[in-house]
């Protein structure tokens, strides 16, 4: 067994490895809200990497808030099988899609 690290080089508790050599990460308290999740949070979902997480956030920015988790199927790279894996892990807090403010709308 290796000697303990000096106190100033000790790793923070979040970086300590768990069973089977995997880093332990805090478990989410409940389903992840698609309308508030960051790329980093989405990247933590099974089957979602940084690229796909970025696409989800881009879709949200383009279309406005997700009204239903079913809208994930419109994101390139999310098919029916991955969607079924994600279904219990995500939620969609109802948010109305907002139109552009009047100052940004074209004059008629």
From TrEMBL:
GO terms for cellular component: type II protein secretion system complex. It holds the Pfam family HHH_3. GO terms for molecular function: DNA binding. One of its GO terms (biological process) is DNA repair. SUPFAM superfamilies: RuvA domain 2-like. InterPro entries: Endo/Exo/Phosphatase_dom_1 (IPR051675), Hlx-hairpin-Hlx_DNA-bd_motif (IPR003583), RuvA_2-like (IPR010994). Residues 40-59, 70-89 form the Helix-hairpin-helix DNA-binding motif class domain. Residues 1-32 are annotated as: Disordered. It comes from the Bacteria. PANTHER family: ENDONUCLEASE/EXONUCLEASE/PHOSPHATASE FAMILY DOMAIN-CONTAINING PROTEIN 1, ENDONUCLEASE_EXONUCLEASE_PHOSPHATASE FAMILY DOMAIN-CONTAINING PROTEIN 1. This is Helix-hairpin-helix domain-containing protein.
């Amino acid at each position: 067994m290796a000697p303990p690290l000096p106190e100033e080089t000790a790793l923070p508790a979040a970086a300590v490895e768990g069973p089977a050599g995997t880093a332990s990460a805090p478990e989410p308290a409940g389903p992840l809200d698609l309308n508030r999740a960051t790329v980093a949070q989405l990247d933590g979902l099974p089957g979602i990497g940084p690229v796909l997480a970025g696409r989800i956030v881009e879709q949200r920015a383009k279309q406005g808030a997700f009204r239903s988790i079913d809208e994930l199927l419109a994101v390139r790279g999310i098919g029916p099988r991955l969607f079924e894996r994600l279904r219990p892990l995500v939620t969609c807090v109802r948010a109305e899609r907002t139109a552009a403010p009047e100052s940004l709308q074209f004059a008629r």
